[in-house]
Amino acid sequence: MGLEIVLNDITEGAKADVRRINEETKVTSEQIIGEARQASKEALGSRLLEVEEKLEQQRQQVLSSANLEVKRIVLNKRKALLDQVYDQALEKIENLPANENEKYLKTLIKNHEKGGFKIYSNAKSEELVKKNSKLEYGGNIDCVGGIVIENKDGTVRLDFTYDLILKTVYDRSLKSISDILNG
Predict the structure, then answer these.
(1) Secondary structure percentages of the chain, helix, strand, coil, to 5
(2) Highest-confidence range of 8-17, 22-31, 144-153, by mean pLDDT?
(3) At CA 34, angle to CA 30 and CA 39, rounded to 5?
(4) Which backbone phi and psi does 83 adopt, to 5 degrees?
(5) What are the backbone angles phi and psi of residue 148, rounded to the nearest 5°?
(6) Which residues contact 13 (CB under 8 A, 6 or more apart)?
(7) 44-56, pLDDT tens digit by residue?
């Protein structure tokens, strides 16, 4: 019987050790699993934060691109409108009533023929220019209207064509026109 008691004590001691080891293992494994879950949550959170930041950057890029495209379209439309107005103004100048054209040509000739030698105009205004100028008529030029005055040796040409006058006024006014359109 003494052997059975020793064997029982050893068995009970071994069972107690197994229970203690199982409990320690359970506590340790729960601790490891808890730490792993926490690490996983942290990794997922940081990855989620990175993804959100990238999405926000992409959203900003898409918005910027869209805004630039809208501005480009608006600018193109404004340019087309300005070009249309310019073309209409040029057409109106080209179709000036004869008496207005004569008045403008007389004023140009009177104010600028001094020091000139030759004068040029379009074919439509040739007779008017010849009649109102003391300068030698140099011939016809391709323009909507107006005159070009040249010095004796041909080195200086003063361009008072309606085309150039309109273009100059248009270019000077473009900034203020653009400011008006932009509000």
Answers:
(1) 75, 10, 15
(2) 144-153
(3) 150
(4) -65, -40
(5) -130, 130
(6) none
(7) 778 888 888 898 9
Give the model's pLDDT for residue 183.
Answer: 64
DSSP conformational letter for 123: G
* Residue that has been written with the tokens 């608006």 in this structure: 74
Rounded Cα distance between 84 and 89, Å, is 9
Q: Does the pLDDT of residue 60 top 80, yes or no?
A: yes
- Take residue 171 and report the two structure tokens written for it: 């270019």
* Spatial separation of the C-alpha atoms in residues 114 and 128, rounded to whole Å: 18
Pick from 146, 156, 151: which is nearest to 108 by CA? 146
Mean pLDDT along residues 138-148: 94
Crossing angle (nearest 10°) for helices 2-94 and 162-182? 140
Query: Average pLDDT of the chain?
Result: 87
Cα–Cα distance measured from residue 179 to residue 156, given in angstroms and rounded to the nearest whole number: 36
Look at residues 101, 58, 84 and name the one whose alpha carbon lies nearest to residue 170.
84
3-state class (DSSP) for residue 27: helix
Query: What pLDDT, in 10s, does the model give residues 84-140?
Result: 988 999 999 999 999 999 999 999 999 998 888 999 999 999 999 999 999 999 999
Please state, in angstroms and as integers, the Cα–Cα distance from residue 144 to each residue in 9, 14, 17, 89, following that order. 125, 117, 113, 11
